[in-house]
Known about the structure:
The chain is α/β, with parallel strands linked by helices. It is about 50% helix and about 10% strand. The protein has a 5-stranded mixed sheet, with helices on both faces. β4, α10 (about 260-265) and β5 form a beta-alpha-beta unit. The longest helix is centred in the last third of the chain and has 21 residues, at about 280-300. The relative contact order is 0.11.
Amino acid sequence: MGERAKKTGEPKMTVNEKIIKNKIGLLNLAQELNNVSKACRVMGFSRDTFYRYKAAMEEGGIDFLLDKNRRVPNLKNRVDEQTEKAVVSIAIDNPAFGQARASNELRKQGIIISPAGIRGIWMRHNLQTFKLRLIGLEKKVAEEGLILTESQVVALERKKEQEEACGEIETAHPGYLGSQDTFYVGTIKGVGRIYQQTFVDTYSKVAFAKLYTMKTTITAADLLNDQVLPFFESHNMGVLRVLTDRGTEFCGKADSHDYELFLAIHNIDHTRTKAKSPQTNGICERFHKTILQEFYQIAFRKKVYTSLETIQKDLDEWLRVYNNDRTHQGKMCCGRTPMQTFIDAKSIWKEKVDQLNQKGGQLLVS
């Protein structure tokens, strides 16, 4: 059996980022479920811990969620207030500057401070990385309504590309964005090449997969028609947008390409990944790694398959467990199963529909 794994780069998180991710995940989950006790059970925290995190967040934002160092700083050794403000300002106004570049630029203004001194100030204000400085810039723009300079616009666009490359895709509720891709499973004697069409809801991580012996526009559309859209319709919901790579089974002339026509008929927007950057569709890529390791590499060692139907039957059973029983550590799942996340977030879809109805708009459900 020939198999091919698609590798994705996963950036390492710092200790502080891991701490903040878990704490914010608990707060967000409680808000989504509107149930503190249930969120604490899912995440493995006590109610007392939840309210401590909530109080810290309300008092000082994300900075107050970090574990505090017991050492008391010696304020006499710090730079003066005017210098500290200048260092913070240059970090937010020019997030692409490193500490050495910032030191050189400040020297032009008559402010003498070493790169190490700049890093110390940035760490106090949670600005020590490019990503954190971009977040600071976004907050300042939102609060003050500033007009961005050309360099700031470039920096924010670079951040967006990096987030998409790491699978950090904007998603607001189930059905907001689906991620679809083709996965080459391998070759079986008597069956031939086997391709898997995959669809993952980027919010809940509910996944669908169907096997074919060819990779065409028809098979790409068939997965949506046979499994995805009927599932969303059964929950009185729809799919608003689909993200795919630029493969020929997904992209072509809008008036003659079967997949493009299918999306148009069902009022589904089509977004394509950045050229030559398959990692942009990171959610599907990560799911393919999971299904390769947890299903295919095990199943093909336990059983000799002679038909596509027998593989599909076992695949459907694995997907049932994946969606309903297997806990997921995704950004929105927070330790829940994909189906739990999907069901808990149906209210968000309903709120969107109600808001559009109040404004006189219309949400088309495929």
